[in-house]
Write a structure and sequence with these properties.
Length: 84
């Protein structure tokens, strides 16, 4: 976690997925608005059947189902989460 403002309900973080990550046991996630920028590596969203790599950006609107993920090479993301 880099920063969090409980009054504004916003948080930023850098998230690292190690090589060989498989979040299948965690299932699909649904939460509030989230922005994600891939810093390094790549990650595949199994639900969407799409791989995202370094330099790509995604904005997930509130309630959008996403994941689980796998990453053969590992991946580092910068995320901004806006809580409800």
């Amino acid at each position: 976690m880099l920063a969090a403002d409980p009054d504004a309900r916003v948080a930023t973080r850098v998230l690292r997925f190690e090589p060989g990550t498989d979040t299948t046991p965690n299932g699909v996630q649904v939460h509030a608005l989230e922005e994600v920028y891939i810093l390094t590596g790549s990650i595949t969203d199994l639900r969407l059947g799409e791989t995202f790599g370094a330099g790509q950006y995604a904005c997930r609107p509130p309630g959008m189902p996403h994941g689980p993920w796998v990453s053969a090479e590992g991946c580092t993301t910068f995320e901004v989460r806006y809580r409800r």
